[in-house]
Amino acid sequence: MMPIFIKRAYYVLFLAFLAILPVSGTIALRNLILILLLVLLLVSVGVYRSALAIKPSEIWRRVPWSFKCLAVFLLLFPLWAVQQEVALQNLGGQWVELILSALIGWGAVMLLGQRGPGLLALGAASSLPLVLHLLLFLAGLAGLLSPAFYADPSLGTVWQSLRDHGMGETYQALHLHDLFAGFRGVEPMHGNLGYPGDQAISLFCACLAMGWLGSATNLRWKPFLGIAICLLSVFVAQSRGGILYSFLLLLLAGATYWLKMRTKAGGTGLRPGGARQALVMGGLALIGVLLLAGIAVQSVRNDSRWKTMADKVSLGLQYENPVQLLCDGPSAEYEAGIRQKFADNPQYAEDVINGLKVQDGGRILLMRVASQMVLENGRGLDGSRQSFKKLIAKKCGHVPVLDFAHSHQGWLDLALALGWLGLALFATVMLSFLRRGWRSLGEADLRPWAFALFLVSAFWISRGFADSIYREHNLEMQFLVMSYLYARMVFSREIGVTSARD
């Protein structure tokens, strides 16, 4: 008989691990939680094997072959990497963490069975960084955050601000118009809010399908609150990617239900009174779309990055020699030509030039150059996030004038780090999750988990085309959640169907 505290500890630590993965300044804590989860899992398998919900051999048999091949590749990659020592260091870091996070996800189903975290709990944990972000914004509006916090945003300066305020210190408060300044709380990058927020939206959408079309009546309203929190957070952070992908995810969720789920016989059909419920659901969805549209309009009106985006992208696509532009920067004559083109609006011209150097135009240049380098480096370099930075410096013969840390495109970055084979194996794993989720949408007892797996996989696959997200804590978050959702789906019949609301 397994002590109940082991299961409870694993449940709590699993959600805590998911919640803090995107939060800056928590590396030591999340590594500690990962170790504790592994210890609990090993003790459960070694000492209480007979009390497990699923046998380890059954788990191993159902792990996708694509993931097994990827794991073997990652473990062996340092043997043929161009920079073997760096590749070995990265293996001991982010790539082993990927494997261990997937193991933790599968282990949660093996250990907890149907008593593992449900979709609502997963969505709430994923959205916790966004809740923290909004609480910090409210603290700023109340004048609780000190100048030290704004100079160095961190959990430490948050605590220092609150402590000193409690001792009588007063600070200048934020104003509502600061909504358009891009307040990010403790996060240096808005992606640390946008990525978990969009993952949470995917999970909450699956909850909505259950709550309104199934028997989990308590899930009809809570997911709406979760989605609203996520949308508000990315708006306050002025995350263009977060706003755009939130909109696309909501569209995908609605289209997937309409095309794949609502007409399937034996599925979660409408209950008595379902026409009225469907009308309510449609009305709420319409309100949500209109609210999101309003957020998008306000963001476009108040954020110059949206207004100049088309011209920045156009310049990035039109420049004949993107490698030369990255290496040497735009010439004075080229900048003068841009200023002449927009002579009627000098500030707009400067924004476009700056965007070519560091924003949308620069990203297009990076993708064009990275695509060339992928063709030239099929073996992969060193498995690190710095692969692009090293290769472009080598290509230029010096540190580029337009110096970027990476290519800002996840799939290209991955190919430069791990080579063509690593890219193919990683893509196969992600697509296998997506495909299995899609194919299982027609099975009533698998549907909640299949819907969540499909949406989460679709988000992470598509997001990689716009940013370098297959790295470090993002990898842990991706494979922790997708492996758990996959395992809950494939073992639903063995462990019994649950409402997925816990």
Largest sheet: none
Helical fraction: over 70%
Given as residue ranges, the uncertain stretches (5+ residues, pLDDT < 50) are 265-273
Q: What count of helical segments does DSSP give?
A: 23
Query: What is the number of strand segments?
Result: 0
Distance between the termini: 23 Å
Rounded to an integer in angstroms, the radius of gyration calculated over CA atoms is 24 Å
What structural class do the secondary elements suggest?
Answer: mainly alpha
Residue share in β-strands? under 5%
Shape: globular
Average pLDDT, rounded to a whole number, is 87
Summarize the entry for a quick read:
With 502 residues, the protein is mostly helical. It is 71% helix and 0% strand.
Folded structure, characterized:
With 502 residues, the protein is mainly alpha-helical. The protein is built from 23 helices and no strands. α1 (4-20) packs antiparallel against α2 (27-47). The protein is globular, with a radius of gyration of 24 Å. Mean pLDDT is 87; it is low at 265-273.
Keywords:
mainly alpha, 71% helix, 0% strand
Topology record:
Layout: H1 4-20, H2 27-47, H3 56-62, H4 65-76, H5 84-112, H6 119-141, H7 147-151, H8 155-166, H9 191-213, H10 222-236, H11 240-261, H12 274-302, H13 304-307, H14 309-318, H15 322-328, H16 332-341, H17 346-358, H18 360-376, H19 387-396, H20 410-439, H21 447-463, H22 472-490, H23 492-495
